[in-house]
Amino acid sequence: MIRLHDYWASKIGSDGTLPCREDLDPRGMGAAVLPWVILLDVVETPKGRYCRRYRYRVVGTEVVARFGFDPTGKHVDDLGDTEMIRLVHRYMDEAVTSRQASVTQTPFMGPDREFLTTERLILPLRDKDRDCVAKLIVVPLA
């Protein structure tokens, strides 16, 4: 996963501009990491519980196996209103606001409905046409 971080960091502009999705080639991420990648859309919402929501755009095969289902197309908060979901949401909000890579300890529910904890790397990506964070790459570190 360090390779993924280094690849992402190599795409940051000399002026500190974040990379956008189009700047990244999945082959540059490394074949071993792709089954673990989650790509989330950042969806700004004027109303509702959250000021932004996160939609699963791409979910790697190993992540689907760990979840026990494929959340592609769902929003993170569609998975429930639990303390775990609120914590995950807060970590993603922080990555969007700070525009920095971060490592978090994130709880998740395993395939047998047990609660597990993992460290995750969160990498923000900007919108190609606007200076805002439009996507997040999330990968477990262990």
Please explain how this structure is put together.
There is one protein chain. With 142 residues, the protein is of the alpha+beta class. Helix content is 25%, strand content 30%. The chain has a five-stranded antiparallel β-sheet with strand order 2-1-5-4-3, with helices on one face. Strand 4 and strand 5 form a beta hairpin. It is globular and about 45 Å long. 22% of the residues are buried. The model has no long low-confidence stretch (mean pLDDT 88).
Task: Please name the defining characteristics of this protein.
alpha+beta; 142 residues; 4 helices; 5 strands; globular; 5-stranded antiparallel sheet
Order of SSEs, N→C? HHEEHHEEE
Low-confidence parts lasting 5 or more residues at pLDDT below 50?
Answer: none
Terminal Cα span: 9 Å
The whole-number mean of residue pLDDT values reads 88
Number of strands: 5
Summarize the structure.
This protein is an alpha+beta fold and 142 residues long. Strands 2-1-5-4-3 form a 5-stranded antiparallel β-sheet, covered by helices on one side. It has helices spanning 2-10, 26-29, 61-67, 83-98, and strands spanning 38-44, 52-59, 102-109, 115-126, 133-140.
